[in-house]
From TrEMBL:
The lineage of its organism: Bacteria, Pseudomonadati, Pseudomonadota, Alphaproteobacteria, Hyphomicrobiales. It comes from Methylobacterium oxalidis. This is Sulfatase-modifying factor enzyme-like domain-containing protein. Residues 185-227 are annotated as: Disordered. It comes from the Bacteria. Residues 17-207 form the Sulfatase-modifying factor enzyme-like domain. InterPro entries: CTDL_fold (IPR016187), Sulfatase_Mod_Factor_Kinase (IPR051043), SUMF_dom (IPR005532), SUMF_sf (IPR042095). Residues 205-227 have a biased composition (Low complexity). GO terms for molecular function: formylglycine-generating oxidase activity.
Amino acid sequence: MTGATLLDRPDASDATRDMVFLPSGTFRMGSDGHYPEEAPVHRVQVDGFWIDRTPVTNAQFRAFVRATGYVTMAERRPDPKDYPGALPYMLQPGSLVFKPPKGPVDLRDFRAWWRFKFGVHWRRPYGSGSSIAGLDEHPVVHVAYADAAAFAAWAGKEIPTEAEWEYAARGGLDGAAFAWGTRSRPAAGTWPIPGRAPSRTRTGPRTATSARPPSPPSRRTATGSTT
């Protein structure tokens, strides 16, 4: 979340607690070697802004829900008028969960490792029987853009623009392909899947936002534990 519309100068206050100020600057935005919509690389000017040091946590999102009674998109039953021809049993709320692939898959098709599951939302991140008990400081998940915008408005902030987020996530590494530099590390952040052969790996478990090792403040938890 940013505080760009709240403050126009880098003066720390209660409103900017747990935020970091990024001064104005220019950087090369986008990529010519990944998804087509990211091309071409182009230079962008960004005004100075405040941004949260970490992703929004379960505890913070819970406070928002309790104060407003907000219901997330993943908890809302789809309107049949929006999905003509859909079978009744399919019109249930839910979200996407990670599905370990059985082998090499086409990375261009996200359905190879994600599946839609009924009953999944921020309080039940894996569906029925799961919970966020003991995970107050972990990033909130299964939050749609509309949910994030509602939280930001309640908090007196706003969602960063694409340029602001990329500027912050790069942490000064202008032109780097990855948050850590230019060298590809395709196996970074993967661990053996419990009960599977050692060669089978999965994305690493989420961790508390405060548990990440020291890094430039604008890049802290920008990659890794949340999708």
